[in-house]
Write a structure and sequence with these properties.
The chain has a nine-stranded mixed sheet, with helices on both faces. A six-stranded mixed sheet has the order 17-18-22-19-20-21, with helices on both faces. The chain has a five-stranded mixed sheet with strand order 2-7-6-5-4, with helices on both faces. It is an alpha/beta fold. Helix content is 35%, strand content 21%. Helix 15 (402-408) links the parallel strand 20 (393-397) and strand 21 (412-415). The chain starts with a strand and ends with a helix. Helix 13 runs parallel beside helix 14 (376-390).
Length: 453
């Protein structure tokens, strides 16, 4: 966060200062007072079930020096009608001050990234690539919505060279709003899948939503598009600026060649451009990470990072929490914790990663994939069929996941809830087994993974 006093914040967001307007914020904004840093800004939302203004004291004890909220508080406060709109306006102002045309310095390069799946893994890969060339701020976890994006933007300061913003969407227009805050210099679109299909209604609508990031590019900005996804490649028509493609397609600008997997399912491959090639060995699990890595390398090229430097940086990445995390269990079994979220494409990729790991039995513990709309039962059944070809045992957890068991046939075990799953696994998992845990957040299968660990 660049230093900014409350009078300036109030002018930017159209608010009124209550308290000392000379107080200067020097640390990032937070929504959870416990996470405040000394000099930070606490953003208080009055919600249906909780009121952030009641936690100002907690934020102050943690180090916050000011509040952005809808009513006065014991700390100096900028009072606004709409805290979300004010947070976004402040973030847009701060990033604008860091852009080269305003700062007069080398300035900030902003990368926006979206896709139906792989966003967070690719964000982690891209952050590593860009960090090899300069100070980089990237989305933490999956804070990729109308609050998470401005919070990430406000972590940038005068030393930041690259800002990586993961952008998610649950309806058309959401990414356009996020891109409107920041106008990325580089837009990365990974794929158009079936995540949130129930919300969007069709793959075409999902493609339209993802394409908003390309349309939101800054003038002269570069689009990085997946050459292997026809819906993504078609987005080149949405920009007059330069386009870089990535993937296995023979015409890709950053092409993947000769991918292989080691005994733990970690990929090695070669990235090739018209001018260079470089070997890559990823520490992440799953063949699907190859395409994510090529997108990160392509975005790195657009930002000025040579291919060889990008390849070296890709080898340093660790997985985000609950995303194909490999853990050794006390009983000699192995846990593959992919419980953060799930939809058909990511679940198929998780099952393929499970099948690639050498070991004893492969046990797939699968829960509901949410927001699939009218296709939900068919999609769950198809996942069950795929699971039966990849795993020795398919454990379907919860009533919504029962079609998975139907699809898996004789390999399936249908269990009522998480407690039943923990009980079954503790009774049946043996040394050498590999256990995948995968479901949408609503299923909370992270509780099952935690119980096993």
């Amino acid at each position: 966060m660049i230093p900014i006093d409350l009078e300036e914040i109030a002018a930017v967001v159209g608010g009124t200062v209550k308290g000392d307007g000379a107080v200067t914020v020097t640390a990032p904004a937070v929504l959870d007072g416990r996470q405040a840093d000394p000099g930070g800004l606490f953003v208080a939302f009055a919600g249906e079930h909780a009121d952030g203004h009641d936690y100002v004291g907690q934020a102050g004890e943690a180090g916050a020096v000011a509040v952005l909220g809808s009513r006065p508080t014991p700390l100096p406060t900028v009072v606004v009608e709409d805290a979300q709109a004010a947070l976004q306006a402040l973030a847009a102002h701060v990033v604008a001050r860091l852009r080269p045309e305003v700062s007069g310095q080398v300035g900030l390069t902003v990368v926006g990234l979206t896709g139906s799946q792989g966003k967070t893994s690719t964000k982690d890969l891209l952050a590593a690539v860009l960090s090899s060339a300069g100070p980089t701020i990237a989305t933490v976890g999956s804070l990729n919505n109308e609050l998470g994006v401005p919070l990430t933007m406000l972590r940038a300061d005068a030393a930041t060279r690259f800002l990586v913003l993961e952008m998610g969407a649950r309806h058309i227009g959401q990414i356009a709003e996020l891109a409107g805050l920041v106008a990325p210099d580089i837009a990365v679109v990974l794929n158009v899948g079936r995540a949130h299909l129930g919300k969007f209604g069709s793959r075409g609508a999902i493609a339209k939503a993802k394409g908003e990031l390309v349309q939101g590019l800054a003038p002269g900005g570069t689009a990085v598009l997946n050459a292997d996804d026809p819906r993504v490649v078609a987005m080149r028509a949405l920009t007059d600026g330069p386009v870089l493609t990535n993937g296995a397609d023979e015409h890709a600008d950053v092409r993947v060649l000769d991918p292989t997997l080691d005994r733990l399912g970690r990929p090695s491959f070669t990235l090739r451009t018209a001018d260079a090639s470089a070997p890559v060995a990823l520490p992440l699990l799953g063949a699907h990470q190859v395409l994510n890595a090529s997108a990160a390398a392509a975005a790195g090229l657009a930002a000025g990072v040579p291919l060889e430097a990008a390849a070296a940086a890709l080898a340093t990445v660790s997985p985000s929490k609950w995303r194909l995390e490999l853990r050794d269990l006390a009983d000699g079994a192995t846990l593959l914790n992919d419980s953060y979220n799930a939809h058909p494409e990511s679940t198929l990729a998780g099952l393929d990663a499970l099948a690639a790991i050498e070991g004893g039995r492969r046990i797939a513990v699968l829960g509901e994939m949410a927001e699939l709309g009218a296709d939900s039962e068919a999609e769950h059944r198809a996942v069950g069929e795929h699971a039966a070809a990849r795993a020795d045992v398919v454990v379907a957890v919860g009533e919504a996941a029962r079609p998975i068991a139907d699809g898996a046939g004789e390999r399936a075990v249908a269990l009522a809830d998480n407690d039943a799953a923990v009980h079954w696994l503790r009774a049946h998992v043996a040394a050498g087994d590999v256990v995948l845990v995968k479901a949408s957040r609503a299923a909370r299968l992270d509780e099952v993974a935690d119980a096993l660990e």
